Amino acid sequence: MSRGTLVYAVQRLLLITFTALVVSSIVFIGVHQLPGNALASERRLNPATEQALLHHYNLDLPWPQQYLLWLEGLAHGNLGESLVNMGTQITPLLLREVKVSVTLGLAAVFVTIFIGMSLGVLAAIRQNTWVDYAASTAAVIGYSVPSFVWAFLLILLTVTGLYAWTGGTIYEDIGWGKIEQIPVPALALGLPYAAIVARLTRASMLETIRQDYVRTAWAKGLSARVVILRHALRNALIPVATILGPLVTGIITGSVVIEFLFGIPGLGQEFVTSILSRDYNIVIGVFTFYAALIGLANLTVDLLYPVLDPRIRY
Amino acid sequence: MATVVPTALELPDQLQVVGAAEELPEQVTLWQDAWRRLKRNRLAVIGLVIIGVFLTTALVSFVWTPYPTWRQALGPTYQGPTLIHPLGLDDYGRDILSRVMGGAAIALSVGVGASMLASAIGIILGLLAGFYRGKIDVLISLLINISYGVPDLLIALILVVLIGRGIQNIILAISITAWLGMARLVRGQTLALREREFVEAARSIGTKNRKILTRHILPNALGPIVVQATYLVPAAIIFEAFLSLLGLGVPPPAPSWGAMASEGYKAIQIAPHIVLMPCLALSLTVLAFNWVGDGLRDAIDPRMRR
């Protein structure tokens, strides 16, 4: 890692911190402008208990003061306490959930890149044959079918289908905790984006395989595998890498729905549950985590560019 | 990317005769030309036909559906497709065909509504940011950069919880993040176009900024804008389905496709048709819009000109 890269990474980390701070501050201030208090709608309380509870959460203070206290907590990595389940500290809860979300997200990114690039390369080297047409059609259909529809189809296939065909000997259960429960949600999450990657890979492969150095590689008598994978694909990857950033953001967004459907205990599921139960402290915490997560994911992608294309320096 | 072709439209009348007549055998505007090429694109035409069918269905559903979308029946719940109920019945015994028809109206209203609202905001702010630069540009660019750090679905979810789940509110909640992409596109286009000679020429004869923006810059940026606005429609439709799936879309008993899928999901093992029918309608609509968007992109992009 060169000095320039290091400076760039540090700058970006500062920017990520800033973004996370701004985002969570906006949400914090927005939520605290709501009429009534956070506890009012949940339970009927006698005034004394309510006062005690409000005091417990610092909700009896004016909001600028609450904001400062919250910032102080944030600086210590403390996101406060759940409003619904009293006594539940938010930071360790979200840290546990972020691991689940990241595991699912990485599996989905793997699915996206592997399937997308295989289809794209295949379509490019068999340009204008039925393979190309089939792969290209699959790609358009792939990105028009949203992730939750893939989820339903895959659930039908693996849960209901497998059970019926094998007479109940092999079956898949949706949920989380076992390794074999990862691929289905990861596929559902990754397939729409795999289609986009396939289209991009095809386009950039088509440009690369017409270049002189690829012709030279063929002329040297290298095997097709080496020419395609070692020579052409390497340069074809560069344009593909540019969409990795938006792709990561998209997968994180999609994971909210997928986690909800598959009952996966990740950040997305937590967000939906907490917003439905008006647990604003957790909502603010999840926003902070997501902002940091997306920032870090994009930074990782940006640091990958110079590896793929040495002409890029920071 | 800019679709700046010195078309006959741009020039005052006297110049038209002298200028372009000899190179162009036939005078066609950019849009006539684009339309001609769009018609030759088979997938785009199929897409237009599918959109037409769903649009008609949606309009018809306002006055007539085979059965009322809300009518429940106790007996034949979960029933699969039959002759009198071609798409079957759902968990409350409601006719799914009628509900898919009603869902088309909701999906298209949300899709087209959000696309129009987001485009309007994005175009205006993008033009201002790109043309005037300065503070407004800094502010809008900052907003765009921050928005990259937050999943737009979360913002929409919070907003829906705060302002309620009516169809207008859903459109608003989607547009509040969707305009940023359009603003970025228009800003970039404006930045490039404002340096062009024809803008300089317009300015030199004392054209007011407002007129330069609306008569010279906007028409030349319109190609990419139309493409982007087309892609926004399916994105908004999927977005609404996401909200409905999570239980925060258009409130029941309105037959939103996402809500239908969400209800049917509970019974996916015994009656998969309840989930599959609305999903099929949704995917077809999205596919059609994507085909039309791709077709428009290829038709308008001057580099593809033959």
Brief overview:
The complex is a heterodimer of chains A (314) and B (306). Chain A is built from 12 helices and no strands.
Explain the overall architecture.
Chain A has helices at residues 3-32, 47-56, 63-75, 90-125, 130-144, 147-165, 183-208, 212-219, 224-241, 244-262, 267-276, 280-308. Chain A has 314 residues and is mainly alpha-helical. In chain A, helix 10 (244-262) crosses helix 11 (267-276) and helix 10 (244-262) runs antiparallel to helix 12 (280-308). The radius of gyration of chain A is 24 Å and the shape is flat. The relative contact order of chain A is 0.15. The mean pLDDT of chain A is 84. With 306 residues, chain B is mainly α. Chain B has eleven helices and no strands. Chain B has helices spanning 13-18, 30-40, 42-63, 96-132, 134-147, 152-163, 167-193, 197-204, 209-245, 257-265, 272-300. In chain B, helix 3 packs across helix 11 (272-300), helix 4 packs antiparallel against helix 5 and helix 4 (96-132) packs antiparallel against helix 9 (209-245). The radius of gyration of chain B is 23 Å and the shape is elongated. Mean pLDDT of chain B is 83; it is low at 14-21. Classes of the chains: A mainly alpha (314), B mainly alpha (306). The interface between A and B is large, with 42 and 37 residues.
